[in-house]
C-alpha cells in the first residue's frame, strides 16, 4: 500500500510499504478515509526528534473497518470509526483512570503509545491506505454511518480532544478568562474548547495574521506578539493582574518576536500572564532530547523556566499529552448535536500523493495553511 514515509529532515515521500495485517485477535484493519497532518509531525519532519528515516507518519486517523480480528466483540466490518492518537490497552492502571496517553502496556519501558510517532511504540502511522488498530474495542470510537461531519470527526483523533484537555489541565471554568499561546490548530481548539466551556474572554497569542483571524472568527481576542510583550498586552486589555488560566499550545520550538528560538519563552510568558494562584495547561510538546536545540541544555530538555516567579505567584501547571480517548466520545456527540464544528481550522483537503508538498508548505506556515487533511482512498470531499 501507499504511505507517507519519513526520509530525513524536511523530506517525506509517498512510497509502497508492506500492507498491515491482523497480528492479534484484538486487532482491526481500518481503510483510511481521512488522516491529518499535525504540528507534532513537523517536529519529526524538521529532524528535531530522534525519529529515524523509514517511519510511516500519521497519528490522526479515521476510516471504515475493513477486517475484524476474531477477539473483537463490539465492532464490525464496514463500521465508520475514528482512532484517538494514543494507542492504549484499556486495562492498565493509567488507562483505568482515563489516562490513556500514559498506557503502561502498549509500549513497554515507556508510558504511552501512538501511531506513527517516534518512541511511541511499534505502531505504523495512518497516513497510508490502511491502518492496523490494536486493542480495537478500546481504540476505535464508533461514528455514524455515511460521510457527514467527516472533517469534524477526523479532528477527534487528536487536536479537538487535545485542545479540550488543555482547558482541563489549566482548570478552565465558566466565567473565567483564558490566555492561549499559539494559534496553530491545537491552540485554536483550546480557545474553542474554553469558549464551549463558558469562558468569558479568551485571548489567543500568535504572530501569523491569518491564524489570529481564525481566532477572532470564533470569538477570541487576538494578541499579536510581534507588536510587544504579550503578557503586558493581555494584562493591559484586562485591567487586571492576569488571566485566570493560561494554555501553552506552542511547545519547545517557541520563538521570540524576532524569530529567535527560545525554548522556555512561552512558559515564562504564561507565568507573567496568569494571575497569582491561576492555572496553566501545557499541551505544546516538550522533549527530553532535541537534536536541533539552540543550546546544550535545551538539547537534553533542560530549559530556563522561571520557577522562582512561578512559585512566588502560587501557580500550578498540568502537562503532558492528551488522553484523547477520555474526551472523544463526548466531543463526538457535541458534533453530532450541532453544538461544535471544529473543522473551521481545516484549510486544505488533498490526496495522499500531495503529502510531500503539503508538509513543506505547512512547515513554512504558508498563509492559509492551518490544518491539512489527507484522503488516501476516497475521492476528495466536495
Ligand atoms: Zn496530532
Ligand atoms: Zn493501558
Automatic annotation (TrEMBL):
Its cofactor is Zn(2+). GO terms for molecular function: oxidoreductase activity; zinc ion binding. It comes from the Bacteria. Keywords: Metal-binding, NAD, Oxidoreductase, Zinc. InterPro entries: ADH-like_C, ADH-like_N, ADH_Zn_CS, GroES-like_sf, NAD(P)-bd_dom_sf. Residues 25-144 form the Alcohol dehydrogenase-like N-terminal domain. It holds the Pfam family ADH_zinc_N. The keyword Kinase does not apply. Residues 185-257 form the Alcohol dehydrogenase-like C-terminal domain. Belongs to the zinc-containing alcohol dehydrogenase family. This is Glutathione-independent formaldehyde dehydrogenase. It comes from Pseudonocardia ammonioxydans.
